[in-house]
Protein: Phosphoenolpyruvate guanylyltransferase
Organism: Micromonospora polyrhachis
Amino acid sequence: MVEPSWTVVVPVKRLDAAKSRLRGALDRVPHESLALALAQDTVAAALACPLVGEVLVVTADRTAAESLRALGARMVPEPPQGGLNPAFVVGAARAAGRWVAALTADLPALRPVELAAALRSAADDPGMRRFVADAPGTGTTLLTAPPGVPLSPRFGVGSAAAHAASGAVALPAVGPTLRRDVDTPADLVAAAALGLGGHTTALGLGGHTGTLLEPAAPVYGADMQGTVATFDPQLRSGTLLLDDGTQVEFPAAAFDASGLRLLRLGQRVRIEHDDAGGLTRITLPTFR
């Protein structure tokens, strides 16, 4: 039996805005270099997977596009509205009629054999969307759809539950490198323990040229404000660009506590937080 050939879609944010919680994680390494290396190792592993026929990278970042095209990926322009889920939808549309896999760009330890095993398992159910939860079990690193079935991505805060609620079924017995996404310095250490790809390794993680640092917990002012960078009305979560330049994610609970029905991209908001720095409520600046 001939195994299907997959199109893998990998959205990559602008490097200066990607992976904000990793900013400053590596001493003497520019943040953009780290964000790019994570994406390079992810894409390189996908391209090396024997079941993958094509990797589509959805990005608006010129540096990322040039680097990932050099690896063999094909570029797709980022949609005007931005956001992770719209990027996956645009990429999947380019692969209409084919097996499609949505893969996050932060899997620097990914091994092609583990991706192949997951895709092979997903292909056993030709009428069903399948997903892989991240290491903590709350997020998603991979979502698959067979030909003729919409991808319907629900990436974001709590995406594993959101994908399950949408009818996708979790893939069992998935290898650890496919689940080990990197959002924080601790995640990067965990990925290093599994064995990083060449691009991230070249930055000197654990070696002589780069020292892993643990940034201080975010400290937000009593009246910190920012603008809405992304918002998924189905998940009721998204990201904010604070006035100090920090990009932070907000969960559905913070939106639900606001009493608002919708957030628009670019809308000004005020955040409230707990003593640990977690976002607890989003309001409009005039609300108290």
